[in-house]
Amino acid sequence: MPPPTYPALSYELYPPRNAAAEDSLWTTIRRLEPTRPDFVSVTYGAAGSNQETAIDLLRRLLTETSLRPLAHLTCVGSSRGELEAIVDRLIGGGVRGILALRGDAPDGSETHPGELQHADELVRLIRDVEAKRSAQLAAGRVSVGVAAYATRHPDSPSVEQDIQVLLAKEGAGADFAITQVYFQPDDYSGLVSRARDAGVTIPIIPGVVPMTSTRRLTKLSELAGIGVDQALWSRLEGARTDAERRRIGVAATVDLARTALADGAPGIHLYTFNEHSAALDVLDALDLKRPPEAGLAASM
User: Fold this and answer.
1) pLDDT tens for residues 243-261?
2) Is the pLDDT of residue 48 over 70?
3) Domains contained in the chain, CATH given
4) Which among 61, 63, 150, 259 has most CB atoms closer than 10 A?
C-alpha cells in the first residue's frame, strides 16, 4: 500500500525593519514552527534592498529552528555577476530552496547591460550555479519555485500570455509555482485549467492571506493589480468589532483554500504579513492533515 499523501503547507515571512518588528517576527516564527510547514518563504525588497537582513533571517531559520527556508530572489536591478554571487552564497549557506522572481526595479533606476529581465532567465542562472556546486549538494538539487498569477499580471496583455510565461519558467527548470493573491474561488481553478491545457505540469500552489481588514484588502488589491472584492469589503466594513472582522476575513480565506484543495491543489501557501494569530485560525479551520513527526532512524 502506498504511503498516504498530505497537502503541502507553507508560510511567507518578510525580514524585520527594526528591533520591535524582529521581536514580533520571532514570536510568529515560534508559534508557526509547531505546525511543521514544508517550508517558509523569506522575501526581500526591490533589487535586494534589504538583502543582508533577509540573509540574516535565512541563517537564523537554518540554525535556530527546524524550518526549511525558501529564499526569494529577484533579478531586475541586479547584474548577472551579482545574482550568481548571491545564489552561490545562498547555496553555500545551506539554503536549498529559491523562489525566482522578476521583481520590480526601484523608482528611478536604470537598466544595465547584461541585466536579467525575466524570471525564466533567473531560473536558468540558478541551475547554472547549482551545477557548479553538485559535489557539495551530494547529487541533490535546489528546489526552484516561481510565481503564477490566478488573475492577469498587471504588466501582461492577457492571461494567456501569463501562461506562456509560466510555461517558459518550467522549461527553464522551475519545480513548482506559488500564486499571487486572488479573491474569487474560480480564479485558481481557471489558472490551473489554462496551465494544464498549455502543457504546464509543475505543481501550482494557491497563495492565500487572512483578509481581516479593509486596509489589508486594499493593500492586497494594489499588490495584485486586481479590483477589491466589494462583497467582502462590505462585510468587513459593516463589522462592529475587530473580532467580528477577523472572523469574516478568516472565513473568506478558508473558503478560498478549501475550494482550491477540492479542485486538486497540492497544498496551501499562507501570506502571513508576519502575524501568526489569523494564520493559525485559518489553519485550525482547514484542519489540514499533516505527516506524523518521525526521526530519521524510524524512517529507515
Assistant:
1) 999 999 999 999 999 999 9
2) no
3) 8-299 (3.20.20.220)
4) 150
Q: Comparing C-alpha atoms, which of 261, 252, 272, 300 is closest to residue 12?
A: 272
- pLDDT tens for 78-107 read 889 999 999 999 999 999 999 999 987 655
- Grid cell, residue 35, equals 505546525
Residue 45: is it exposed, middle or buried by C-beta count within 10 angstroms (0-12/13-18/19+)?
A: middle
Q: Tell me whether residue 12 is one of the annotated catalytic residues.
A: yes
**pLDDT at res. 137:** 84
The set of cell numbers assigned to 188 is 485558481
Q: Are 121 and 75 in contact (CB under 8 A)?
A: yes
Amino acid at 105: A
Q: Is the separation of the CB atoms in 287 and 257 below 8 Å?
A: no
C-alpha dihedral sign at 146, 30, 214, 287: positive
